[in-house]
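Title: Prediction job returns without error message
Component: structure pipeline
Severity: low
Priority: P3
Assignee: unassigned

Description:
Job completed but the reporter wants confirmation the result is attached to the right record. Sequence as submitted:
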Amino acid sequence: MPPGGGVLRIGEATRLFGVSRDTLERLEQRGLITPGRTPGGHRLYDQRTLNQIAKALGLSAPTVEGRWRGRAQLARQGKRRRA
């Protein structure tokens, strides 16, 4: 999950779960998830909301944790290659 209790924006959440923006918006419309919002209205997905998404999609928390760690590791490797 986001390190240090951080949050993800909608694009990052869609990549984490492998779903479309529309899917996340539909989950919200159905009351299955409740993302936070920035003052400008952009959706923010904290750990609680990511757990809600996982549950709505039938994924286990360990599955989501593994995806998050895998993406974080790829990001770190990409930064090392550019340096």
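Comment from assignee: result matches the submitted record. The helical segments are 10-17, 21-29, 47-57, 61-82.
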